[in-house]
Amino acid sequence: MAWREEVARTKRAAYTSQEYWGRPLPGFGDPAARILVLGLAPAAHGGNRTGRIFTGDRSGDWLFAALWRAGLANQPQSVHRGDGLTLKDCYVTAAVRCAPPANRPLPAERDNCLPYLERELRLLRSVAVIVCLGGFAWDAALRALAALGLPPPRPRPRFGHGAAIGLGERTLLGCYHPSQQNTFTGRLTEAMLDEVFEQAKALVARSTLSA
What we know:
Blueprint lengths: L1 H9 L17 E2 L5 E5 L7 H4 L7 H12 L20 E5 L12 H17 L5 E5 L1 H13 L16 E4 L2 E6 L4 H4 L6 H21 L1
Parallel strand pairs: 2-3, 2-4, 4-6
Antiparallel strand pairs: 1-3, 5-6
Helix pairs in contact: 3-7, 4-5
């Protein structure tokens, strides 16, 4: 909490004229979404500045472009809360709601924010697929679903890009986080990200047919 507020006061030089959000971030998107995208935490000068998760940072540039290509967003980019972005059949949130130092939240921060994720999952009744961006989000999703009465099998499923595990009526789908560390090195490519969302849509279609 102290970090997010300090960042909002000092600001980055490129954004000195802007008012930073500097508060916890809720998720956003389609309340009837069947796909939920779970990220790590707000970026200090991204969501912590703009007031919307993944908005105004490089990770968001990759994510929203992929959602647009998949037909889950009405535009390929998001720069501020009022830019007209809407999501269709998709909801985006994060395991941690406040920007952490060096974008590395502690397990304690994950646990403190877990009740918010649990509540979102209770309210988003149509969610069939949870796309977990990175191992931290994967672990948070497993914990949240366990708290909702869906404990993971043993041995505990390990995160991997493209890994999928069914828990009740919901499927966890792993995806490398679209951070610069992954996109600049080629660990995650646009094609790989597109494949994950095509897989998510196929899983949703399958769950609809079996309902």
